[in-house]
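DOMAIN: structural biology
WANTED: fold as tokens
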Amino acid sequence: MNPRPSAEPARSASVLLAAMAVLIGLAGVALAVAGAWLIALGGSWYYLVAGLGLAAAALLLRRGGGAGLMVYAAVVLLTLAWALWEVGLDWWPMAARGDVFFVIGLLLLTPWVARALALRNAAGVGSARAVLGVVLVAFLVAAVFSWMRDPRRIEGILPPADATAATASAPAGPTAAADEWTAYGGTGFGQRYSALDQITPQNVSQLEEAWHFRTGDVRGQPGDPEETTFEVTPLKIGGRLFLCTPHQSVIALDATTGQQVWRYTPQIARPLALQHLTCRGLSYYPGAAAAPSAGSASASASPAACDAKLFMPTADGRVIALDPASGQPCPAFGGGAGQIDLWKNMPNVKAGSYYSTSPPVVTRSLLIVGGTVLDNVSTKETSGVIRAFDANTGALVWNWDSGNPEDTAPIAADRTYTANSPNSWSISSVDEALGLVYVPMGNQPPDQWGGARSEGAKKYSSAVVALDLATGRVRWSFQTVHHDLWDYDVPAQPSLVDLRVGSETVPALVQPTKQGELFVLDRRNGKPILPVNERAAPQGAAAGDVTAPTQPSSALSFDPPALKPSDMWGATVFDQLACRIAFHRLRYEGRFTPPSTEGSLIHPGNFGVFNWGGVAVDPRRQIVFVTPASLAFVSRLVPRADATSLYVQGKERPNDSLPALNENFGAPFAVKLSAFTSVLGLPCQAPPWGYVAAADLRTGRVAWMHKNGTVRDSSPLPLPFAMGVPNLGGPIMTAGGVAFLSGTLDQFVRGYDVNDGRELWRSRLPAGGQATPMTYRGADGRQYLLVVAGGHGSLGTRTGDHVIAYALPRR
């Protein structure tokens, strides 16, 4: 008799068992060694115990019989118990702890492994397989229950509109028609709210693409920095849309058809040492003529050329005034040049190191301009001065320099503004009735070391500052972070709304921050409407620096909970363990842990809970729709030997290249900043990383909060897992009860029921939608939703040049 037919399967089973034993043994050794390291750092004993258990199971599997399966079952049961104790029924943290064990357990239950075990020693194989099967079923049941739960989800319903509050607040706001979008945030109040109500929760699912325009301007041209982004929110004036592109072209489109009307492309001086190349939007000055009717396709043409104006900030430090009718520069503006030079009277002039990425504020007579400076390059940057120009002539009216805050009269021709002062790179808001412009301030470079900051920087860094429209003098300021060492500059436009507080209507300002606070202030004087408390902050700054003893915290806050070792995450137990080791090796004492030479964990990181997209405010319902995100970063100070060497990168670079962003020339420390990620490139903190939420502004109560977005476009495989991903780009709300958002890292625009947060509609975008949408009424009477999809360089979302309008089907 030939034994080969029966011997071959046995030999294959034996090889499989040996391979499984080796695999489990190696996993056990890795867990045990790394687990011992974790214990030495003060961490959990689980990994050492589990690693030893796996090693024992591997040895016993080699001998055959059921003992190896029993030990492996014990390790799986220990893992299940430990996971439930640490994270409860929370799917993604559980999956990271148990996925490898579960898959290996299934392989151990295969008939081939059972045959090989029985051939070596038949004792107890059947019962051991049954025990392991029961343990795996228990793990599966726990996983199923955890998949159906969302422990961080807040369910609720927002309060209905308060008729008294709505009536009181309506007249105080700007008077743009409901079917227009005349400023970046809708109006100068920055509410990102539209009174249009054609799109409702009942019909939003019927939205369809109405037209699709391609600008032809994409990232990848010579000299483009990594952060070349299409972040624009277009304006809608009369029958036209006006937008700018990353490379500074200005385009006018027919708002109803999407057809190009004109295009203007200025000549930009090159080369530019840019960190960012973007244009978030244009500003519109209606001029002295009466506002045009909303329905006319040619309504943007003003009676006199350049009576109305569009203002375009350029990457080489200018503001150009354009005629909305023709797209041509306005010759009378700027002394006949059609533009103003923002480098005038500036110190430390370096091409590309200063310009306005955000649209200026426009009032009845003024153009108010801030700008961004190079971040964390040196201590000898240009000034962050805020300037007001005559909107008709371009003449300087006043300048507010935080290094010389009392002297706001136009600067003399032979003087310069204060160098290296805090800047305002984001969007300001304005209340002309109160005569105030509200400016969100950044920090004085460098961000992570403040040992040599000026008095003006100490007072006005990371603050919202109210300036008098007539004089530029400070009426009040509110600092959101004291002695900011975390790049927690004020990133978002303040949203202005009149709140009904008790029997009184209070003009309010809602200021989102990177650290997750929403400060609700009386915009007349900066006093808190919702309580603000000072809380003790971690101490121990780097040499030569100090930390503030306390930091402000608002009653309305989306500050993420402090990280714990159990919050560490990964695709498997192995990279999850590596993240725990990294966590214990970093300095971390909660929010506001100072940067350090050993490396500090900064949570939330400088990506922010909120960023330049801001929030949406409904003035009638007195509510706010927000998109909080939470990603941890690592900040490591690197002592500098001198003020000139390229230090952080550790390699030679061409003389004409932009220094590394975190060199901090002139400071005692450079800084290395990076996201806190695993060896696989995944965030070390467990998801969700992004939410949508809504709150009552009068009480500070969060009504609902849901994770938002998938990892479809962030993972190697297009997996549509709804894990909750960060957002960059703001939301809008409408009177129809629907909010819209396109900025999540997956390529979708979504519509939500404002009442309870349910996602009602989504549409796939051809590129990343890292911009804030807007909405308007077309000449055909339909309400349009407009989305810009062009991607974001530093986020790695898909590049594009798309402007897409959605509307309900024609009746």
In short: The CA atoms of residues 715 and 790 lie 19 Å apart. The radius of gyration is 29 Å. The longest strand covers residues 504-512. DSSP finds nine helices and 41 strands in the chain.
